[in-house]
Design a protein that fits this description.
The complex is a heterotrimer of chains A (278), B (365) and C (124). Chain A has 278 residues and is mainly alpha-helical. Chain A has seven helices and two strands; from the N terminus they run ααααββααα. Chain A is rod-shaped and about 150 Å long. The two termini of chain A are 31 Å apart. Chain B contains 17 helices and no strands. Classes of the chains: A mainly alpha (278), B mainly alpha (365), C alpha/beta (124). Chains in contact: A-B, A-C.
Chain lengths: 278, 365, 124
């Protein structure tokens, strides 16, 4: 029972063997197709995305995931620094801040970054000088906290900008990722589905063979038994005949009748044997 | 002498306020609060002190609604006391509200300047600074109208008159407007407690002068520190310093010329208390750090603002050691405000899972 | 090769749709910008319990499609939930849409439309 761990759960019948065989054929055809049109070829023909490796995509998605989690923590720290402002100022500065916002000090520059031949958009944060809408916030009370909070939030926004770059790269690479997805399917089909189907077929075959062997052995046993029985009968018969011959020799009148009886008995025995052999 | 007739008019109020003071949370209470795992636990712990006011809160309320409800209690008590106050005490309590009024008017000015519907702002106003004619200010559609109605309708008129014109409201940063008003207010309040026939020479004047002088100095120092790196000029800055206090006039003069934290430190050198704070907060050395209250820098040191708050609380606490004084009302309000800020802080630390900083509250009892 | 420069070169601002605390914090960081009068458009929207979904959607559309100077749009996750259908169907690269946590609503990667795409991709 080789590969018992990696096969589909089927009853080893001839019908399922047929099913598996057609499945394997389908998987192989599909795999050949996927292979023939594999990702490097697709990308090579795609003018926008020349040769980006799946490694880079995995890398980007991994970094998105990581950065998003990091963002959760960073934003929490920032929110806490705002709580400190509320504590120090002893009131709500929200409205005042909203109304004093005039010109963005924190801006982004959108540029393109060359990642192994692919131009990916990237954001870069920068601050404009001499632009301070909130410099006097908390002048009489809590100003130091306000400044500290601004710094904390500015750092948090830098993280957000970094994350946005990654994410934009991801969105642009979405197409590539779909293609890679196909490649992943090809790999799955090559390394998982095809071997598994093959294993299943092997298993069914071996099970069927085993059944055949069992059956053959059983029949052989039956045949042996039958032969033994016949031999025993023959011996008995012979004894009877000998006895009869002796009796005939003694009487001599009824011998022909007995001969006839024995002949029919033999014929029946033979026909039975033939049946068993079939 | 003042003790002879004080209780005729003000005995009841004094009793009530001293009762309120005994209801303030103690160090033991705060210890219990900091042990809480959730806001619901916190709510439960606050039950004895704030029961009725917190009852309507939903499970796990946000910290801002918690702060709102705890403030409601202060407001309710303040209004009760105010309703029972007569004569000079009533006037004194009105003065107390002017500070909040300044904040509210500053809010309305901001709204009007940006042509917002100021009616929406009314609910953002501090209830202690509420005055009957406040909705009238919302009718104003431009800053000149607002300026005129402030002059007519509010008790703040004297603070505007002479130092701010309606063009100033348009041109100056709202923080400068606010601090100018506050300076005028502090000076007026100080003048009031020291000249009113019912208060001059009484413990009220004595304690209040101490409190107000401290407040004036604190503002002057804060303004100076916070103005570094901004476009606030030294002459403009000087105009924001109240013209009394322990730093006045020499310290104020030196503050007005200070260019960095070191300069501020030199200016306050003459007053040993402030000098101690500067040393404790590690200010005036190489890094002008805002201290411990900010940015998760940790450490046991307190920031200058923390130390000022601490000092304010201690002055307020000691105000209760004096008999026959209105100052206890002021002190009680300040203590209560600090209590609310403490509760909010602890709630915030619990809600945001920042337990290591939870001990940053200020408790004096 | 590259996306046309016109698609992004003017995008220099961040925009935010969030609750009061988030907006206040981000404005303190200095992202707030109000365009020249007379139209004086803000690049931020404060959402509270009284703000209806239509207003959020309108701001979302304004920041994502109408305005061409927004590079990144930040939106509180719990607000994104309210207009989830719009957020999930938004696939343009510019402006980048970023779901951020708020004080009262910690970040839940399960709800993030982009992370969900990442997940789906790797069949997790």
């Amino acid at each position: 029972m080789s590969g018992a761990g990696n096969r589909e759960a089927v009853f080893p019948t001839r019908q399922s063997l047929g099913l598996m065989k057609s499945k394997l054929k389908g998987a192989q055809t599909g795999h050949d197709l996927l292979k023939r049109k594999n990702v490097s070829e697709v990308i090579y023909h795609d003018p926008i995305l020349p040769g980006i490796s799946s490694y880079e995509i995995t890398e980007i998605t991994r970094r998105i995931d990581e950065a998003k989690r990091k963002m959760g923590r960073v934003m929490q720290i920032a929110a806490f620094s705002l709580a400190e402002v509320t504590y120090a100022v002893g009131g709500d500065i929200g409205y005042q801040v909203q109304e004093s916002a005039k010109s963005a000090r924190f801006r982004v520059r959108t540029k393109q970054e060359n990642v192994s031949g692919v131009f990916l958009p990237a954001f870069e944060s920068y601050t404009t000088d001499g632009n301070n809408d909130f410099g006097l916030t908390g002048l009489g009370k809590g100003g130091q906290q306000v400044q500290r909070c601004r710094e904390t939030y500015a750092r948090a926004v830098e993280t957000l900008v970094e994350l946005a770059s990654l994410q934009t790269a991801f969105v642009i690479l979405d197409e590539v990722i779909k293609v890679v997805n196909r490649r992943v399917n090809a790999i799955i089909s090559e390394h998982v589905i095809i071997p598994r189907t093959e294993n299943t077929i092997k298993y069914i075959n071996s099970e069927l063979d085993e059944l055949d062997r069992e059956e053959f052995f059983r029949l052989k046993k039956v045949q042996n038994k039958k032969q033994r029985d016949t031999a025993a009968q023959d011996a008995e018969m012979r004894l009877k005949r000998d006895a009869a011959e002796k009796a005939e020799a003694a009487s001599g009148s009824t011998s022909s009748d007995k001969e006839n009886e024995l002949g029919t008995g033999d014929i029946l025995g033979e026909s039975e044997d033939a049946d068993v052999i079939f | 002498m003042e003790g002879l007739f004080f209780n005729v008019n003000n005995g009841y109020i004094e009793g009530i306020v001293r009762g309120y003071r005994n209801g303030l949370l103690t160090g033991q209470n705060y210890n219990n609060l900091t042990q809480c795992e959730t806001i619901d636990d916190l709510k439960l712990q606050l039950g004895p002190a704030y029961g009725d006011f917190l009852a309507s809160l939903p499970p796990n309320p946000s910290t801002s609604t918690l702060a709102e409800k705890t403030t409601d209690k202060l407001i309710a008590e303040f209004r009760y006391v105010r309703a029972n106050a007569v004569g000079a005490l009533a006037k004194f309590m009105d003065y107390l509200t002017y500070g909040y009024m300044i904040d509210n008017v500053a809010l309305l000015i901001t709204g009007t300047l940006h042509e917002r519907d100021t009616r929406e702002l009314l609910e953002r106003c501090h209830p202690l600074g509420w005055f009957e004619t406040m909705p009238v200010l919302c009718v104003a559609t431009n800053i000149e109208e607002l300026y005129n109605s402030v002059l007519i309708e509010t008790p703040l008129a004297p603070y505007f008159k002479g130092s701010l014109s309606h063009q100033d409201l348009d041109e100056l940063n709202i923080e400068i407007v606010r601090n100018t008003l506050y300076k005028n207010y502090l000076e007026d309040f100080n003048n009031f407690v020291n000249t009113d026939p019912d208060m001059a020479g009484t413990p009220t004047a004595e304690v209040m002068t101490e409190i107000l002088e401290f407040e004036a100095d604190r503002r002057a120092i804060n303004i100076t520190l916070n103005s570094f790196g901004t476009d606030l000029s030294k002459t403009d800055r000087k105009k924001l310093y109240p013209s009394f206090g322990r730093l006045y006039p020499e310290g104020s003069y030196m503050l007005s010329r200070a260019e960095d934290v070191e300069g501020v430190r030199l200016a306050v050198e003459g007053v040993s208390d402030y000098k101690t704070y500067f040393d404790a907060a590690g200010m005036g050395q190489s890094s002008a750090g805002a201290g411990n209250m900010s940015g998760g820098t940790g450490g046991d040191g307190k920031s200058l603002e923390d130390l000022f708050y601490q000092k304010e609380m201690e002055i307020s606490k000691s105000a209760f050691t004096r008999q026959f004084s209105f100052a206890i009302v002021y002190a009680w309000v300040k203590l209560r405000e600090q209590e609310i800020r403490n509760i909010t802080w602890i709630a915030e630390c619990i809600a945001q899972n920042q337990k290591e900083r939870i001990g940053n509250y200020i408790s004096v009892f | 090769m590259a996306a046309p420069a016109s698609a992004y070169k003017d995008r220099q601002f961040l925009a935010v749709i969030g609750d009061e605390d988030s907006v206040t914090g981000l404005l303190l960081a200095g992202i707030g910008h109000v365009t020249q009068p007379p139209d004086s458009q803000k690049n931020f929207l404060v959402v509270d319990s009284k703000t209806d979904n239509a207003a959020i959607e309108e701001a979302f559309n304004r920041f994502t499609t109408e305005r061409k100077d927004i590079g990144i749009l930040l939106i509180n996750q719990h607000i994104a939930e309210r207009i989830r259908h719009r957020v999930d169907t938004y696939t343009a690269a510019f402006p980048a849409l970023l779901e951020i946590p708020s004080k009262d609503h910690p970040y839940d990667p399960e709800k993030d439309s982009v992370l969900r795409r990442v997940r789906r991709l790797f069949g997790e």
